[in-house]
Design brief:
The complex is a heterodimer of chains A (319) and B (52). With 319 residues, chain A is an alpha/beta fold. Chain A has two domains: 107 residues, Galactose-binding domain-like (Jelly Rolls, Sandwich); 192 residues, Rossmann fold. Helix content of chain A is 14%, strand content 27%. Chain A has five helices and 16 strands. In chain A, the strands form three sheets. A six-stranded parallel beta sheet of chain A has the order 12-11-13-14-15-16, covered by helices on one side. In chain A, strands 4-3-8-1-10 form a five-stranded antiparallel beta sheet, with no helix packed on it. In chain A, a hairpin with a 7-residue loop joins strand 5 and strand 6. Chain A is globular. Chain A starts with 6 loop residues before the first strand and ends in a 35-residue tail after the last strand. Chain B is mainly β and 52 residues long. Chain B has one helix and four strands, in the order ββββα. Chain B has a two-stranded antiparallel ribbon. The chains are: A alpha/beta (319), B mainly beta (52). At the A-B interface, strand 1, strand 2, strand 9, strand 10 and strand 12 of A face strand 1, strand 2, strand 4 and helix 1 of B. Strand 1 of chain A pairs antiparallel with strand 2 of chain B.
Chain lengths: 319, 52
């Protein structure tokens, strides 16, 4: 329900828009107020034209994290954006990336039309909370949206905070979606939850990739490990906090499956699920530590002058 | 000056939802979900309901 990356798009000549929304935010019994609801952001022709705090609606009270929730229902609140430019324009309303939000009403003082195709390539991304970006300062400040804007792409964010666990329904959803590019950020939740063992991780990862490849045999696919995870960067995993408590197991994922390796680029960040794989054909090694940054630029390739555009790169076959 | 505001349908009208693969009708309005409706049967952990 947390709508990271969800937006309502249309064209309008209206100069005033009103949105009625009902948020559902949490509040611990010991806290003086509910958690922040996040921001509603209005883009006009791609530029930020309005930014409002989403009104507090329903509140889920609980004694502590993970405790039983008690719903304190409330009414929707309204947000008004006036003084929009004259003439027909493309409008996007981005919902808060951190709070379940129902849209109750949209009102306009002008004509509202369907958006026109803009020709942008569609990038579908799945990852963990790092990609969900609950802590971003607004829905268009998440790294995937920032990257998509820079690349001129349209991003569909299928990230699930705390739940990037190679769930089959995620792979099937991705398989069934139109996509010009797919990226997957996998590993951090698996390590933190000790979700797999050596026996099960490799087949699960390859099965996940193969399911996606069933629907996208030639779509460029970028597989990356978490861009940052200081607590686990020196530990191969599973995490010491996992059920076994060892933090010792070598979880080598092995080679990508036959269908999964085509046009698939594996890009290792500092928190890798397996051992150092430098020299493995088709698997890109991470840059030196000083250059490890969150620079995966899926739609138009990586660093200028260093790598060709992603859609032109091909992974050499394994021996 | 009074601005005349008109209601715009949230579903089945001119507006398009992006990033949501399911639009659940609620007593209040529309709850966009990023995953299709059929996926709800496939996760049991309540921690997943929020992120989806």
């Amino acid at each position: 329900m947390i709508p990271s990356g969800v937006r309502l798009v249309f064209r309008t000549d209206a100069r005033t828009l009103e949105f009625e929304v009902l948020t559902s935010t949490a509040r611990l019994d010991g806290d003086p107020r509910p958690r922040p609801t996040g921001m509603l952001e209005l883009l006009v022709d791609g530029a930020l034209a309005g930014r409002r705090q989403a009104p507090v609606g329903n509140v889920l009270r609980m004694a502590g994290p993970g405790a039983v929730q008690r719903l304190v229902a409330d009414k929707p609140g309204s947000v008004r954006v006036a003084g929009l430019p004259r003439g027909m324009k493309n409008v996007e309303l981005w919902l808060p990336q951190q709070t379940p939000t129902e849209l109750v009403a949209l009102r306009a003082d002008g004509e509202v039309l369907a958006p026109l195709p803009d020709g942008r390539r569609r990038w579908v991304h799945h990852g963990s909370s790092i990609s969900h970006c609950i802590e971003a300062d607004g829905p268009t400040g998440t790294w995937s949206v920032v990257a998509a804007v820079l690349a001129g792409a349209e991003v569909i964010n299928l990230s699930q905070a705390g739940n990037a666990l190679l769930d089959p329904y995620v792979a099937r959803t991705t398989r069934d979606m139109p996509a010009d590019l797919i990226s997957l950020k996998v590993g951090i939740n698996i390590v933190a939850l000790s979700a797999f063992r050596l026996r099960t991780f490799g087949p699960a990862l390859h099965g996940f990739l193969d399911t996606i490849r069933d629907g996208h045999p030639d779509t460029p696919l970028l597989l990356i490990s978490p861009v940052s995870c200081p607590a686990l960067e020196q530990v191969p995993g599973p995490a010491a906090t996992g059920p076994d408590g060892t933090g010792r197991e070598d979880r080598r994922p092995g080679r990508p499956g036959r269908r999964g390796r085509r046009r698939t680029v594996a890009y290792g960040g500092p928190c890798r699920a397996g051992p150092d794989r430098r020299g493995t054909p088709g698997v890109r090694s991470p840059p030196p530590p000083s250059r490890r940054t969150n620079t995966a630029r899926p739609a138009r390739g990586g660093r200028p002058g260093r790598r060709p555009p992603l859609h032109r790169r091909r992974v050499p076959p394994h021996g | 000056m009074t601005v005349r505001m008109r209601m715009v349908p949230l579903v089945g009208g001119p507006v398009e939802w992006l990033g949501a693969l399911d639009l659940e009708t609620t007593p209040a309005g529309v709850m966009p979900r990023r995953f299709p409706a059929w996926t709800k049967e496939q996760y049991q952990d309540p921690s997943v309901h929020g992120p989806t």
